[in-house]
Structures are given as structure tokens and as C-alpha cells.
Amino acid sequence: MKKIKINRYIKLFLKLAITGIALYFVFNKIKLIDVIQIFESSNLFFLFLALICFVLSKLIASYRLNHFFRSINIQIPSSYNIKLYLLGMFYNLFLPGGIGGDGYKIYLLNKRFKVKVKRLFWALFLDRLVGILILFCLMVLLSNFLPYPIQYKYFTWILIPLSIVVFYLVIRKLFSHFTSIIFLTIFQSVFVQLLQLTSAILILFAFGIYENTTAYLFVFLISSIVAALPITIGGLGARELTFLYGAGLMHLDMNNSVGLSLMFYIITAMVSLSGIYYSFRSDKLY
Fold first, then answer.
1. How far is residue 150's CA from residue 268's CA, in Å, rounded to a whole number?
2. Lower Cβ count inside 10 Å, N or C end of the chain?
3. What is the pLDDT of residues 52-90, one digit of tens each?
4. Residue 70: which of 178, 192, 174 has the closest Cα?
5. Angle, CA of 226, 227 and 230, to the nearest 5°
6. pTM, entire model
């Protein structure tokens, strides 16, 4: 038991170190004062709209997750599920790669409904996976509109239906009890990711950026996948580093790119902090 705790502390230390190193590298490559000036001159109305779009995306995402719960016979009202989702987002702020919040949800649901941890894990994992599937599909879609000479890029369209079919067949083969909700959750995921893309566009508009939006959004989608990996604390650092390299490859302004990343993280943090209430008053979840 003691060894397990030590290993957890080591992993946490490593992820804190990676987060710190990534942020240090990013801030050494940009002019932080310029990013601050971008924030100070931002259009607050567009930022408010970006916040609304993000909130709506998370609301739909919580309904999507509830479909996975119901497929394993966890019948919870939408109000409880939304509170649980906010609580998970709060823990995701400071735990590695957004995994910590899922772990806490597994703990609470296992304790309350006596559903096996394995079934809960797969429900949450597939909920994440269907989101990543749509991120990939949108990346493929946007790649066709990038102003860069990418060989055979117009043939990449086939990857969209192909990836969806493969995903469906894998679910039907390995997780048959989720088969009936797959296309519904895919449909919901499209709205989730489009709302988050809209949020990113509105942040760009708030910064006064109206050019190269497709390239910015393409990097944003890549960074969303990278931020979900359990390598940094809450995805912080990983997203910014992705934007830094993406900006270099696509000849985008690095300050604007990192500014977009940081502002999206700030919006995420603002919404996530609303879950702090339920971390102290878990009795109010029900």
C-alpha cells in the first residue's frame, strides 16, 4: 500500500515537472508582455459569447456521458449527472490529463450504484473516445481547407466515414451493450466539438484576428487531443506547446496562438471551478 502511494507521488511529481518545463519552454519562445496586451485589448463581448459556447458544449457532453451510464444500468437524473460532470471538470483542472476527474466519478458511482469498476471505466473511456473520433474527423475536414500544398489531401475525405465505420464495428464486437447509442453519441459529439470550435473562433475575434482562422482551428483540434493525454496537469502546458510548434509550422503568430490556448484554458477553468462546491458538499450532488 505504501509503495502504491509512493508511485502515485512520483507520477504526480513527474507530471508537474513536465507541465512546468513545457510552460517554461513556451514562455521563453514568446513575449509574455505581448500576450498580456492581447488579453487587455480583447473584446469582452466576444469572450462572453465564447464562454457561452463552451458551457453549451459541456452541457451536451454531460448528456452524452449519461447515455453511456444508462447503457450499463445506471439511471441518474440529468441534474445529478450535470453536477457530477462539473465535479469531474473541477478535479481535471489539477489532475493529470483530465483522467483524475473520471477516476473520481468511477469512485462515486461504484460506491452509490454498486456497478463494477470495469464497466464504469469503459463507459467513461468510450465517452472520451467518441469525442476524440470527432476531433479527428474535424481535423481531416479542415485539412482540406488549409492554404498549404499537402499531397493527396483531397483523398483524406475517405478517412471520415472509414474511421466512423471502424469505430462502430469495434464497439459492436467488443462492447455490444453500447452499440445502440453509438450513432446518437457521435451526433452529440459533433455538436460538442463544433461549439468548442466556435468558442475558439470567438476568442480569435476577441483578439481582433480574422485571418488564417482555419489554420488556427486546425492546431486547436490537435492541441485538444494532446491536452487529453495524461502527461501534464489538466492539459496545461501540453496544449500551449502544441500551439507553439503548430504556429511555427503553419507560419502563424506565436503570441496569438499561445494567447488563444491560454484564454481557452482560462474559460475552461472558470467553468470547472463551479464544481468546487460539490467537492465540499458531495451530499448536494443527489
1. 33
2. N
3. 999 999 999 999 999 999 999 998 888 888 988 988 888
4. 178
5. 90
6. 0.85
